[in-house]
Amino acid sequence: MTDTTADFLVEIGTEELPPKALKALSEAFAKGITAGLEVAELSFGEVSTYASPRRLAVRVQALQTVQADKTIERKGPAKKAAFDDQGEPTKALLGFARGCGAEVDALSEIETEKGTWMVYYLEQKGETAKVLLPEIVSQSLAKLPIPKRMRWGASDVEFVRPAHWVLMLLDDQIVPATILGLSSGHTTRGHRFHAPQEIEIAMPVDYVSKLEVEGKVKVDFAERSEMIRSQVEAAAKSMNGIADIDEDLLEEVTALNEWPQAVVGDFDEVFLSVPSEALISAMKGHQKYFHLLNQDGSLMAKFITFSNIESSNPDSVKKGNERVIRPRLADAKFFWDQDRKQSLDDFLPRLKTVVFQQKLGTLYDKIERLETLTVKVGKPLGEEPQLLERAARLSKCDLMSEMVGEFPDLQGIMGRYYALEQGENAAVADALDAQYQPRFAGDELPNSGVAQALAIADKLDTITGIFGLGQVPTGDKDPFALRRSALGLLRIMIEKQLNLDLELLIRESIKLHDAVESSDALTAEIYDFIISRLKAYYADKGVSAEEFEAVRVCAPSHPIDFDKRIAAVQQFSAMEEAESLSAANKRIANILKKLDEPFAETVETRLFETDAEKVLFATLDELREEVSCLIADRDYAKAMQALARIRKPVDVFFDEVMVMADDMSVRNNRLALLNQIYQLFLQIADISRLSA
């Protein structure tokens, strides 16, 4: 075995890599290499990843240079089958020795519980890292998450982009290899324009600094990202503005530049008459520009873009970008002006031509369902049916607008603007935008009752329709984003404290689908699917899987009721009585589960034979009314605190009473008593699931 270590560096140089995938490719490359090293049983220290438009690189510090020697044990036949009566080797033993490439004398014996066995110990010399690394790197590259690989030239090698060089060093030594059809070396290349020449890397430790100083490449992705962020914030400050940095855009711009240089540009203030979201979408989506805000939060007529070169004429770069963005903003203004020449209602007939789902009909059909379902959701919230119907009626109209046709991410947002322009009620206008909330994890939720009702109805209509057709999400396949919709509607109901019956709404929604056959089984399946989204939701809040299941088994139909029970169970879990009572409930559940014959539901006090039974029943009787009132008020936390008082009588009962008495009437009476305790707890949660 050796304690020798060395620094390892590998860099794959390519044509410009896809910017939206660069970070993921970089992380996957490093993960694949470390996984390969672990399989090879090579120890290593810190792992650093590097990525720029033209390279993926990984540095592994303190890499063990030689595998430890191994003793491999090969087990052969049992000793009694290895030798005959004369002590001569049998065919079985001779065959085993031959397979090991050894003489019989070289074999050993090993004692086990099942007797003595013949074994062969093979000493395997450890392989060097230099020999193992090429295959480890190749395997990592082969497993990268690349949807579509390409070939280049006459080669049959495939990768995400054509590869041009491979650098592989172990300290100052080249690791000989052929990767992606290229021979490894000790050179990299700098910036395509500033430093296109080869740059020699003597040691892995020199890689980052050499590329920056000689190659004009900031190769560390995270450092480059912070460099861009700082430049954006500095530019905003110089303009007395506020930088509104979208993290996804920041990542994409980082992936597009090796030597980022901020450029501040202007656009005509006439475009500020267009909704700011449309201008921002044009700048971000098409040109990858950062926008600036005034101190009051309004959009400035300026943008920040990044050049991948240090220009000798920055003013020319600025004017070039201004020329490029002007037609984009002009398009947005044209769409805004054109769309306002008609009302949202005028777009309705066109929705009849857009298929939502082949069997579920068009978007117009969906709107007709939403007009009914939104009222069913919103009416219990005290909202006016006319406003609910109107919001549902207009909900998808902006999808037919010129603006949303060009900028799909503005769906709902433009609906709100157009609704306000034509004088719609503010609650209706807000609902057209908020119906899509939450759009992503952690997103805001609709605030008004009309918006909440429309958002819930829209998501529920999609879920029930797709489930009703049997298209249940499987694995990663969820084309209608049903999981996200389910969690979204649950978040709205729970976090906005809406007292809505989810199971009832599912039934009502199913009825509105002509192509779906209503049934209790379908309702239960959809309910289970939606509620199952809460497991991860509560896990993020520190709720254990056992606590979640304790409530889930009770299947509360109101999500806010589910939430209150979860809170009560969490509080109960922290009480000193919890462990004993959950174990007792588990014991009761197991006893009841094993019974073949039915037992009485009522308890006969005349059949009590012990004080323990009498005290337990008296305590239960005393608690029953108090707990029932608390449960009726959904004050589950106090109900659980009250139920905790039954712990001592239960413990005494199990210590002193034989439940399965010989006298059947006494036995059944005791079972009925235990069942009443279990059922009382079950009105809140099945705490037996909290017990290990």
Task: Kindly describe this structure.
The chain has 692 residues and is an alpha+beta fold. The chain folds into 5 domains: 5-67 and 128-213, Alpha-Beta Plaits (2-Layer Sandwich), CATH 3.30.70; 70-124, no CATH class; 221-339, no CATH class; 359-393 and 420-532, no CATH class; 563-690, Isoleucyl-tRNA Synthetase, Domain 1, CATH 1.10.730. Helix content is 48%, strand content 15%. It has 26 helices and 20 strands. Strands 1, 2, 3, 9, 10, 11 and 12 form a 7-stranded mixed beta sheet that branches. Strands 15-17-18-16 form a 4-stranded antiparallel beta sheet, with helices on both faces. Strands 4-6-5 form a 3-stranded antiparallel beta sheet. Strand 9 and strand 10 (173-174) form a beta hairpin. Helix 11 (385-394) packs across helix 14 (426-434). The longest helix has 26 residues, at 314-339. The radius of gyration is 35 Å and the shape is flat. The two termini are 45 Å apart. The model has no long low-confidence stretch (mean pLDDT 93).
Summarize the structure.
The chain is of the alpha+beta class and 692 residues long. The chain has 26 helices and 20 strands. Helices cover 48% and strands 15% of the residues.
